[in-house]
């Protein structure tokens, strides 16, 4: 599926073929049940996203809410983007170990977990991964990764972050 123009997760799911809609509903349910306080759900970049609201953390590199996870229907598979796994070696090791313990086959890029059906992925591991991403810790990791040389979304105007 190309980038969706859906305005809500429900609208997005309704636009999918039933087999994909069922898988997206199930993964969404697991994420919502395990989502720590402070995150919001909505549409981001044509996908269902879970993110830090801008009123909580406006200092993002692109002026968009900082994404924790996103779920999308692609042409040949479904994608679950797990930003708390990407760029955090300890979390990445934990995730790969827990995934291996599940006996399921991992098909993942840096943050993109690819699957065709909800049964293809260990939903308990997905839930644990989301639950581990408490908001303050996620923001601390983001700030540390950006470092002191980061620039605001006004970087083209010479405004550097303190």
Kindly describe this structure.
- With 162 residues, this protein is an alpha+beta fold.
- The protein has helices spanning 9-14, 18-34, 89-102, 123-131, 135-146, and strands spanning 40-44, 47-52, 66-73, 78-82, 112-115.
- The longest helix is centred in the first third of the chain and has 17 residues, at 18-34.
- The protein is globular.
CATH fold type = Aspartate Aminotransferase, domain 1
End-to-end gap: 41 Å
Q: How many domain regions?
A: 1
Order of helices and strands: HHEEEEHEHH
Structural class based on helices, strands and sheet pairing:
alpha+beta
Architecture per CATH nomenclature, i.e. the level-2 architecture: Alpha-Beta Complex
* Proportion of strand residues: 15-25%
- Count of DSSP-assigned helices: 5
Short summary of the structure?
By secondary structure, the chain is an alpha+beta fold. The protein has helices spanning 9-14, 18-34, 89-102, 123-131, 135-146, and strands spanning 40-44, 47-52, 66-73, 78-82, 112-115. The chain has a five-stranded antiparallel beta sheet, covered by helices on one side.
């Amino acid at each position: 599926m190309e980038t969706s123009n859906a305005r809500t997760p429900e609208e997005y799911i309704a636009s999918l073929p039933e087999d994909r809609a069922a898988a997206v509903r199930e993964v969404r349910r697991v994420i919502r049940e395990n989502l720590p306080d402070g995150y919001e759900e909505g549409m981001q970049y044509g996908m269902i996203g879970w993110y830090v609201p801008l009123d909580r953390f406006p200092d993002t590199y692109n002026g968009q809410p900082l994404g924790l996870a996103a779920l999308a229907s692609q042409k040949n598979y479904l994608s679950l983007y797990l930003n708390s796994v990407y760029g955090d070696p300890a979390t990445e090791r934990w995730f790969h170990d827990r995934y291996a313990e599940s006996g399921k086959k991992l098909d993942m890029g840096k943050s993109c977990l690819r699957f065709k059906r909800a049964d293809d992925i260990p939903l308990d591991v997905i839930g644990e991964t989301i639950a581990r991403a408490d908001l303050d810790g996620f923001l601390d990791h983001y700030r540390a990764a950006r470092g002191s040389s980061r620039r605001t979304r006004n970087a083209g105007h010479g405004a550097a972050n303190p």
